[in-house]
Amino acid sequence: MVWFWVLVLFTANLKLGLTHIHGGEQPLAKINILQTTVALHESASISAEPVLLGLKGEDTEWITVNFVNPKPSLDDWVGVFSPAKFDPSACPAVNERKKQLPYICSAPIKYKYANESSSYYEKTGTASLRFLLINQRADFSFALFSGGLSDPILVAISNPISFTNPKAPLYPRLAQGKSWSEMTVTWTSGYDIDEAVPFVEWGRKGDLQVRSPAGTLTFKQNSMCGSPASTVGWRDPGFIHTSFLKDLWPNFIYMYRMGHLLYNGSVVWSKTYSFKSSPYPGQNSLQRVVIFGDMGKAERDGSNEYSDYQPGSLNTTDQLIRDLDNIDIVFHIGDLTYSNGYISQWDQFTAQVEPIASTVPYMIASGNHERDWPNSGSFYDTPDSGGECGVPAETMFYYPAENKAKFWYSTDYGLFHFCIADSEHDWREGSEQYRFIEQCLASVDRHRQPWLIFSAHRVLGYSSNDWYSQEGAYEEPMGRDGLQKLWQKYKVDIAFYGHVHNYERSCPIYQNQCVNKEKNHYSGTVNGTIHVVVGGAGSHLSKFSQLIPYWSIYRDYDFGFVKLTAFNQSSLLFEYKKSRDGKVYDSFTISRDYKDVLACVHDGCEPTTLAS
Fold first, then answer.
1. Could you give the CA distance from residue 425 to residue 219 in angstroms, rounded to a whole number?
2. Could you tell me if 198 and 214 are in contact, meaning their C-beta atoms sit under 8 angstroms apart?
3. What is the DSSP string of 215-231?
4. For residue 287, is it within any domain?
5. Adjacent-strand bridge partners of 578
6. What are 381-437's pLDDT values in tens digits?
7. pLDDT band with cut points at 50, 70 and 90 for residue 11
8. Which of 462, 446, 451, 589 is nearest to 518 (CA)?
9. pLDDT tens-digit map of 63-107
10. Nearest to 502 by CA among 290, 316, 294, 289
11. 3-class DSSP assignment, residue 478
12. pTM to 2 decimal places
C-alpha cells in the first residue's frame, strides 16, 4: 500500500511537469494543410521574382511576390513551399476507407497574410509581399490561399525559383571538442558522400592552411517519433557534416572554410570564416561567457509572427552580434528553435545564429522542445518536441557528450569549468546522470579553474515563476532534492536554468536558506550557490508569482541574457543585459582567493584526522 501511494505521488509530480508546457503555438501548426481543397481560378495569379537567387554567392535574398485574386477576403494568405512541386502521390490517405489523398501534405516553411502590405487588398484583390529566403537545398514556390488557415483553398500557384547552387555548404556552427585544444565545425549541405567529399581547410591567420576531413550524418522521416515531425512537418534536412580541428594553439586567430571535393576534381567552397582558439585551462586572462535559454527563431521578413510566439528572438540575436568582439563562448541552454516538429525551421535557426555560431563556440543543452515525446525515453511524457524526440538537435549540432542521445557533458574554457545537465532525462540520485554530475563537479581543479558553473534547461534550483509557486516548491518537481548536496559539496558558484521565460537571480543559497546578505558583491568563502533563471532570450514571457520569496534578489519580466566576465582567478563579473538595448540591469561581482574555495562549509568539508 505504501508503494502504491509513492507511485501516485511520483506520477502526480510528473503531471505537474506536464503543466509547464508554455502557452503559445508554433505558427505553422495553425495551418490545417491536409484539409486543403483545390479551386484554381483562371483569373487568379501569383508570381515571384527574381527567379534565380544567389548570383553573387548570397545564401539569403529578398523576394517580391505579386498576386491577384478576383475574390479577395480578409483571411487570404500566401505560403512559401520548398520543394516547389506539390506531390500528392507522396501524401498519406486522410480517409483510409476512401483512400482519399490530400493535395498538399507538407506544411509551408513560412507564410504571410495577403493583406499585410496593402489595406486595400480586400477591395482590389491585388497586392505584393516581400519574403526573405535562405538557401535550403531545394527550389521554392508560392501559393495563394483563401479560406484562412483552418480550411485552406488553393487559388493559385507561382512559378518556381531557386538558388544557383542549392547544395552549397552553409551555416557553420562551432563547438568545443572533447579537449580544450579542439574545435569542431558543423555545417549543412546538399551533398551526400557519394557526390562529394566534405572537409575543412583551416590554419592560423597568415600561416599555411591544412585540410581536415569531415564526417557526414543525416536523419530520415522514419527517425521521427510522431506527428507533425513524421507527417506535415517533415522536410529533408540535407546532410550535416562535422570536422574536428585538433591541436590548436591557445589564443590564436584561425581562418577556415568548408569545402566539398566533387568527383570531377573541382571544389565547392563556402565563405571564409574565423575564430579564436580557446585558452589553456587555468590561463589567467580575460574570458567572457554568454548564457541564455529559450531563444527560438523569428523571421526578419515578419512572416509566421502572427501568434507572437518568439518576439524577443531577433533582439537577442542582434545584441549578441553587435557585441561579438567581446564574447568568447555562448551557451544556449535548451529550447533552441521551437520548431516543434516542423523540420524546415532548423535551417531557419542555423541561418539566424550563423554570425554568432561561425565565430565563437555555440554550446547547447537539451530542452523539452527538443526532446520530449511520449514513450520515447524522455523523463517527461509530453509532446513538446512535436515528434522530433531529440533527433534534429542531436544531429544538427555537435556537443562533447559521450553518448549524443544522453545530452549531458562537461567542457572547459580557461578559468571556467561547465557541467551541462540534461533535464529531459532522469537526474535524480542513483541515476546514470546523477553519477555523471557528481563526477563532473568533482573533477575540476579549482586552483586552475576557480569558476564552477552548473546548467540545465528546466529549473532544478529556484524560480518564483507563477506555476512553480502554485506547486509550492519554487522548482521543477523533484528538481533539487538530490542535487543540493552536490552543489554544496563541490561549491558550485552559479547554476543557470532556462524553461521559464524571464530572468531571476537568487541569493547564495544552501538548503533553501540564504547564506549571504550581500546583493552586489560577494567575497571570501564559497558558502552557497547562486541560482539564475535566464530563459527570457526570445520566446513569449512567463509571469512571476505575486509573492516574492525571501531568496529572490532580482526579477525581470523582459527579454535578456547573462554575460560572465572572468578577469582572472580571483575576480568575476556577472551582468544581466536586456535584449532591447544591451544595457546592464542587474550585476554583481565575486572576489576571492583559492583558500576561500578550500575552506570548510556546511556539507563541503573534507575529512580530517587527529593523528600527527
1. 22
2. yes
3. EEE---GGGS-STTTTT
4. yes
5. 560
6. 999 999 999 999 999 999 999 999 999 999 999 999 999 999 999 999 999 999 999
7. very low
8. 589
9. 999 999 999 999 999 999 999 997 777 676 655 554 566 789 999
10. 294
11. coil
12. 0.94
**Alpha-carbon gap, residue 423 to 471, rounded angstroms:** 18
Burial 403-430 (b: 16+ CB within 10 A, else e): ebebbbbbbbbbbbbbbbbbbbbebeee
Q: 3-state DSSP call for residue 88?
A: helix
Same domain, 146 and 285: no
Task: Tell me the residue type at 37.
Answer: T
Residue 285 has a pLDDT of 96
DSSP letters for 24-51: ---GGGG--GGG-EE---TT-EEEEE-S
Strand order in the sheet with 60-68: 45-49, 60-68, 126-134
- Tally of CB atoms within 10 A around 193: 13
Distance in angstroms (rounded) separating the CA atoms of residues 411 and 333:
14
List Cα–Cα distances, 15 to 275, 379, 380, 477, in angstroms: 44, 11, 9, 9
Identify whether 186 is part of a domain: no
78 touches 115 (CB < 8 A):
no
Looking up cell 503559445, which residue turns up?
24
Scanning the structure block, which residue is given the C-alpha cell 529559450?
294
Cβ–Cβ < 8 Å for 105, 90: yes
User: Contact at 8 Å (CB) between 370 and 393?
Assistant: yes
Task: Give tens-digit pLDDT for 536-595.
Answer: 999 999 999 999 999 999 999 999 999 999 999 999 999 999 999 999 999 999 999 999
pLDDT at residue number 609: 82
Q: Does 12 have pLDDT greater than 50?
A: no
CA atoms within 13 A on the CB side of 165: 16
474 or 603, higher pLDDT: 474
Question: Are the C-beta atoms of 417 and 258 separated by less than 8 Å?
Answer: no
For the cut 60, the answer to whether the pLDDT of residue 16 exceeds it is: no
Domain count, the chain: 2
CATH of the domain at 44: 2.60.40.1930
pLDDT value of position 143? 97
Angstrom distance (rounded) from CA 214 to CA 197:
8
Average pLDDT of 132-155?
96
Backbone angles phi, psi at 16, to 5 degrees: -60, -35
In angstroms, rounded to a whole number, what is the distance separating the alpha carbons of residues 97 and 599?
A: 73
- Tell me the CATH number at 337: 3.60.21.10
pLDDT at 607: 83
Residue at 57 is within a domain: yes
Answer whether 542's CB lies under 8 Å from 535's CB: yes
Edge-to-edge strands, sheet with 584-591: 362-365, 329-333, 287-292, 560-566, 571-578, 584-591, 521-523
Dist CA 4 CA 338 (whole Å): 37
Domain hosting residue 529, numbered range:
281-596
Alpha carbons 566 and 418: distance in angstroms, whole number? 14
